[in-house]
Specification:
Blueprint lengths: L3 H19 L4 H24 L3
Helix pairs in contact: 1-2
């Protein structure tokens, strides 16, 4: 079983990294990067919940 920290910490770290990288990006590029990042996070969580570690 995974604890809530297993989900919260990667999301927060991803958000911090995206903010750091995106400081010099245009608004449209930032929105695209955010959508891609969220899609990757959801995919990883789905794979983990399916038991494919």
């Amino acid at each position: 079983m995974s604890s809530p920290l297993d989900i919260i910490v990667p999301i927060l770290m991803g958000a911090a990294l995206l903010w750091w990288i995106g400081r010099n990006m245009s608004r449209q590029a930032m929105l695209i990067a955010t959508a891609v990042t969220l899609a990757i996070i959801v995919a990883v969580l789905l794979v983990q919940s399916a038991g494919w570690r």
